[in-house]
Write a structure and sequence with these properties.
The chain starts with a helix and ends in an 11-residue tail after the last helix. The protein is about 25% helix and about 20% strand. The chain has about 200 residues and is α+β, with helices and mostly antiparallel strands.
């Protein structure tokens, strides 16, 4: 090849017009690479979305289940983690063997550190109420289960059939998605008419 032909071949690779007499030929440049980023189709499913449709079924499912910490059946207050589904003894009732240097924090507080980086959402089964945890702080939140008139039964004193509320379920899900549990715990503790829950109690 002559020097001119060699130059023309190099320019052609770059996609430029090459004069050859009276005509021009354009060699198209290669298309840029396209990267495909695979995005998750859905967010992780919480145990919140696998709750049974009525409270009677929930108690049957939890009957004789063991606390993940002490490996015994919770006697005083079972707490169901609505993030991962673990069952715990709420508060100071857990029979887990503690080391001398262990703090006296409750098992919900301890579980939340490993399950939700300090954030926890629990159903306190015998109280018929939800517990929100942010570090050592905690606050009560409306129950997932309501009676036929849309009312809660705190402490299960009335003994009426209770049914899963889709609206309450969605409200807790939005709270978790928005990472708003700490804000709700702070708001609830600041506005409580009664004494706030002791730090680390649950």
């Amino acid at each position: 090849l002559t020097t001119a032909e060699t130059w023309a071949a190099g320019v052609a690779i770059a996609g430029m017009a090459i004069p050859t007499g009276m005509e021009s030929q354009v060699v198209p440049a290669p298309e840029p690479l396209r990267l495909s980023l695979a995005l998750p189709r859905s967010l992780p499913t919480l145990h919140l979305h696998r709750m049974p449709p009525d409270f009677a079924t929930l108690t049957m499912q939890l009957h004789q289940r063991l606390c993940v910490a002490c490996v015994k059946v919770p006697q005083v207050e079972p707490a169901l983690c609505l993030i991962c589904g673990a069952l715990l003894c709420a508060g100071p009732s857990c029979k887990r063997i503690r080391q001398p240097m262990d703090s006296r924090e409750g098992e919900c507080t301890r579980h939340a550190r490993g399950c939700g980086m300090g954030i926890g959402i629990f159903a306190l089964v015998h109280q018929g109420i939800t517990l929100l945890v942010d570090g050592t702080r905690s606050a009560f939140y409306p129950s997932l289960y309501l009676d036929a008139h849309g009312e809660e039964d705190h402490g299960l004193r009335r003994g009426k059939p209770l049914y899963l509320s889709a609206a309450r379920q969605e409200a807790i899900h939005r709270l978790w998605l928005a990472q708003a549990v700490p804000r709700e715990v702070a708001r609830s503790r600041a506005s409580a008419s009664h004494a706030a829950i002791r730090l680390g109690l649950y």
